[in-house]
Design goal:
The chain has helices spanning 11-22, 63-75, 98-105, 129-132; strands at residues 2-5, 36-42, 46-50, 81-88, 108-118, 123-128. By secondary structure, it is of the alpha+beta class. It contains four helices and six strands, in the order βαββαβαββα.
Length: 139
């Protein structure tokens, strides 16, 4: 993984980060107040998602999986994810959790680009799914 300036991102990557940052405010996080936004780029389109917490532990959903589900709703389960961005309302870089990484793996290939940001910062961390999830569960 490497840290780069947001200004050095391609136009497509920049739009992913912008969408992730734009949907942060739509997150439903009354318990933790941690608001997360995400955007996935498929071979066809870009889709956003935000985290949604529930009073019942484990019933909520992460922004990344919400964005993937949004893409599935529009493209069906055969979609292929090319890249994902994630951003949040805190001061450090955010990284997808293991469950989200595995979920991404099931709708992509090993070369999914991951762009991780914090909304107010000028840098992002860029990596790949194969780096962050080296031992994927495959069936």
């Amino acid at each position: 993984m490497e840290t780069v300036l947001k200004a050095s991102l391609s136009a497509e990557e920049w739009s992913l980060v912008q969408m992730a940052e734009d949907v942060i405010g739509r997150a439903h996080a009354p318990f933790t107040e941690v608001q997360v936004g995400s955007a996935v780029l498929t071979e066809k389109e870009v889709y956003g998602g935000c985290n949604v917490e529930s009073a019942i532990s484990g019933l909520g959903i992460c922004a990344e999986r919400n964005a993937v589900n949004h893409a599935i709703l529009h493209e069906g389960p055969d979609l292929k994810i090319v890249a994902l961005s994630v951003a949040w309302n805190r001061r450090e870089m955010i990284r997808p959790c293991g469950a989200c990484l595995q979920y991404l793996n099931e709708f992509s290939n090993n070369d999914v680009k991951l762009i991780m940001a914090e909304k107010k910062g000028s840098t992002v961390m860029v990596g790949y799914l194969r780096e962050m999830l080296p031992y994927r569960y495959e069936i």
